[in-house]
Amino acid sequence: MKRTARIVLAACAAALTLSACAPLLVAGAAAGGALMYTDRRTSGIQIEDEGIELRAGARLREAFGDRAHVNVNSYNRVVLLTGEVPSEQAKQQAEQIVSRVENVKSIVNELGVIGITTLSQRSSDTLVTGKVKASIVDAADLQINAFKVITERGTVYLLGRVTQREADKATQIARTVSGVQRVVRVFEYLTEDELKRMQAR
Question: Which of 91, 113, 135 is at the close of a domain?
Fold first, then answer.
């Protein structure tokens, strides 16, 4: 029963970040107070990340309209771009647009130069995200709030500030989830001592 509840909650959270209602998507709703306290980013950085997602999404929407499906996810000011664009030129244009957004530190451009995914494909990705999150929740020595999970066309992207041990375990967990074709890590690494000091605070 507890695992079922966790899967439902994780799937709901994934639905918020991978909504299929618009051709251009911006992930990153305002974080609740409880999440801010357990997130490994400072509250200031979390707010900056949300601002980056909103501003970048608006500029991309203006540039591409319904010709592209672009997800913008920022973690500690590192921006991950996923989705589909019509050409290599559009892919580079999207990166250039985001690079001019205030506070962006770097960009990981994973946009595919292919046709826009269907609603059923995005729904499948949302389900995969929920299953990965639920599996991380089930791991006794991992904290779900240390990770951000994004799925695009069966590829799972893992973001967060984690130790090598946590990164390896989360990656292995994600690889065992049905529907996952590939796992890409976009981590900022902490030492075990840094993590202990952070937890002590």
Answer: 113
